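Fold Annotation — chain and its backbone

Encoding — discrete vocabulary of local shapes
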Amino acid sequence: MSTPSTASPDEERDDLHVSRVILTSGVAALGGFLFGFDSSVINGATAAIRDEFDLNSFVQGFVVAIALLGAAIGAWYAGRIADRYGRIRVMVITAGVFILSSLGSMLAFSWVDLAVWRLVGGAAIGSASVIAPAYIAEIAPAGLRGRLGSLQQLAIVVGIFVALLSDYFLAEAAGGADQDLWLGLEAWRWMFLAAAVPALVYGVLALQIPESPRYLVAHDREREARSVLRRFVGGDPDSRIREILRTLKGEGQVRVRDLRGPRFGLLPIVWVGILLSVFQQAVGINVIFYYSSQLWQSVGFSESDSMITSVITSLVNIVSTLVAIALVDRVGRKPLLLWGSIGMFVTLGTLAVVFGTAPVVDGDPSLEGARGVIALIAANLFVVSFATSWGPAVWVLLGEMFNNRIRATALAVAAAAQWIANFAITTTFPSLSSVSLALAYGLYTAFAFVSIVFVWKAVTETKGRELEDM
């Protein structure tokens, strides 16, 4: 005999709220998926683009990295546009820009217009990186906010994985990224077009979810806000609206000049946020996800083996991110960062030594036998070290470490610093690696070492502290 359900009406309503907010947050997190997909899809195309347009190492790095300048611009302005026109409208516009960028990149006839379309796509990447976590934080109940907020990072790494997997299958189908696939167009062009598919899904689904209650209250649409709160958050919607109104009245407009401090022009806490962002990129993590296929080809791997190796590395990234999500509230942010810095220092140092001691064949180090195995293991352990620490923990800290008054503006500054650092590392890698891979990875090793000292001396643990206590 089956046991009848003993769930009370209140519990059933709570379960319904949870289900709705998870689905809604999942749709918003698709922006993170597009962020990861669009920023990494170029991985499988870098060598083909270099040969198609006869690029030198500097121009190649610029074409790959210019999307990151666009991302800095998109991240800087997305919040202000969303405050004026709404979160949902910005999501839909972002999806449209992704589609436009993918079509333009597919049909590029020179490196110049490819760079322009990459810049446009980068603006959408930056917008998605801001809008998704902001919307989730505003729609989610307090008890679920941390876990739902982590969907953004998870969506990013899944987007990277799917992009690399897509690159692999398209290159395999054509017999190489530079070979014709369909309609007389090379496989690398179809790699860019593939981003239009999830972008279209994102745009359609974004139209099905409710506007942020915070935005609705700010624009005197309290009846709609009350309905959203009742359906997705539960509790007393009128009380929540009063709290939102109180916060809005107390905020004021904080500008970058309000972040000025007595030392080096900015408040110390803002410098900590900037340096967290810079070190997250300075260790070269995105070199792995933007250039790994070309990197492994340059040291003797076939194109097919290089791409499948990149896919495996991306899968490692996903699993490691899940581990970090499980640990960040138990272990704390600072211990994870310290562990990650030490792990990155060791693994990057190993890669620098392997590349530096390998025999040179036709101008590139040759990783035959044990050297290739050691390099692959070190590269994947580097990803593990990063993804279980600096990947998600930096975003968690940036959301927690600033006080309520300066949080939005300080976050914009830190996010812009992160994209600029990413641009610098991504642009310089081809030039550095053309001189010596050991030089490139030796530099990233040095940054990893400095990050150990930085975390130990400058980062304060935020685990268990209320935002109002910062």
About this structure: The mean pLDDT is 78.
